[in-house]
Amino acid sequence: MSLTLYFAAGSCALPALVGLEEAGAEFDAVRLVLPDGDQRRPEYLAIHPRGRVPVLVIDGVAIGENIAVLTAIDRLFPQARLLPAGDVVQVARTYELLAWFASGVHVAFAHFSRPERYTRDTSVWPALKEGSRENMRAAYAEIEARLQDGRSWLLGESFSLADPYAHVFHRWAPRLDIDLNSYPAFQAHAQRVQARPSFQRAVLHEASERTLVPA
Questions:
Q1: Domain residue spans in the chain?
Q2: Tens digits of per-residue pLDDT, 33-86?
Q3: How many angstroms separate the CA atoms of 50 and 52, rounded?
Q4: CA pair distance 142, 146, nearest whole angstrom
Q5: Which of 59, 18, 12 is nearest to 32 (CA)?
Q6: What angle do the packed helices 184-195 and 162-176 form, to 10 degrees?
Q7: Distance between CA atoms of 59 and 4, rounded to whole angstroms?
Q8: 8 Å CB contact between 154 and 116
Q9: 179-188: pLDDT as tens digits
Q10: Which of 83, 112, 165, 180 registers the highest number of CB atoms within 10 A of its CB?
Q11: Residue 7, beta-bridge partner list
Q12: Which residues fall within 8 angstroms of residue 159, CB to CB, at 6 or more apart?
């Protein structure tokens, strides 16, 4: 089986990188440089017409959208136990959380970072950005509340791909000028994520020189 992950440093592709490293998978990692427009190059659009990351290519078949990519990694490497399995309620609550990250929290942030996706009327962009900050503060508060019972990880005492996914939003807080010291449980969670060897190897991929368009 051949695996190739297309990702961008600092993007929501982080949990896919961490997941593959947690599983001990053999894979090719290809970094897109979004400010350079790699996601719009014909060779990448031929792989994924939406021009987004992450994209996981399994034996030549491209899979996009974060939840689909993370599910594929989990199913390819069940021994790694990257997502809960078995109990229907636990599985459903897991996907409830991942769906909120993908369609709620990430979209809230995109109103700040990519207002042009939502309107071409630049006069309303400041309002979109301020609304983004308000919604992201609410998201951080919800994540904080989930962790305040002393659990180590978002889904309990076992690490899952929900944890590096949440860490994406932790990483983005400085861009919003939001001080996460107001969320001590989330801060402690971030330290646990960062301490994992899989996260550290993912960061090395982010710093790699292998890109879609070599220099």
A1: 3-81+199-206, 88-196
A2: 999 999 999 999 999 999 999 999 999 999 999 999 999 999 999 999 999 998
A3: 6
A4: 6
A5: 12
A6: 120
A7: 9
A8: no
A9: 999 999 999 9
A10: 165
A11: 31
A12: 22, 152, 153, 196
pLDDT at 215 > cutoff 60 = no
Split at pLDDT 50, 70, 90, the class of 166 is: very high
Contact partners, residue 66, CB within 8 Å, separation at least 6? 12, 13, 15, 16, 54, 98, 101, 102, 165
Q: What is the CATH number of domain 88-196?
A: 1.20.1050.10
Supply φ then ψ for residue 29, to 5 degrees: -115, 120
Residue 17 has pLDDT above 90, yes or no: yes
> Residue 83's pLDDT is what?
97
Whether cis (ω within 30° of 0) applies to the bond prior to 126 is: no
DSSP alpha helices (H): ranges in 46-182?
66-76, 88-100, 106-113, 125-147, 162-176
CATH 3.40.30.10 fits domain 3-81+199-206: yes
- Backbone phi, psi, residue 156, to 5°: 130, -135
- Residue 142: strand, helix, or coil: helix
Among 35, 33, 73, 49, which Cα is nearest to 164's? 73
Structure tokens at 197: 């060897």
Say which amino acid occupies 2: S
pLDDT value of residue 198: 98
pLDDT given at position 86: 86
Burial class (CB in 10 A: 0-12, 13-18, 19+), 126: exposed
